[in-house]
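Can anyone check this?
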Amino acid sequence: MSAVLNALGISGSLRKKSTNSGLLRAARQLAPEELRIEIADILEVPLYNADIAAQGKPPAVERIVAQIAAADALILACPEYNYSVAPALKNVIDWASREPGNSALDGKAVAILGAGGRMASSRAQHHLRQTCVFVNLHPLNKPEVMAHSGDGTFDEAGDLIDAKVRQLVTDQMQALVKWVRRLRSESL
């Protein structure tokens, strides 16, 4: 058996019954045994403000930055708000990218998935990939996971129940393990 990899899942939705958080719960459940997934709680992370940062990062920011730094990979559940990335998710990236010296995000593998309306979260995922370029995250390109929030894909609690999307999530988590290992071997 290969060494265990640790991934941190971050949902851009703060709702209790969020389908994007449901995708992360499914990822944790469906991940191969060599991938452990922790799901971050970002509810108390304040909006990025350089004045606040200059006085010392709040405990919620310290916690999420430490979780990101300790993870081998990130799994970002990306809802789409007004054709773009949800503010809660972007805010976490903004805080983590402003670490003095070396960003906790730098060079980290990332899987992106998302749920939403008719086009799922395709536009938001595209914008998120642009942000990944600047902060030097390395997104996994395939398989893409873009789930429609309606049509019986999720139950009333926001949990993923659609078999086809569950298989996509399974495939993405398996691909993420390979992607992390490939990036590590190329950096040696």
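Reply from J.R.: I decoded it. The radius of gyration is 16 Å.
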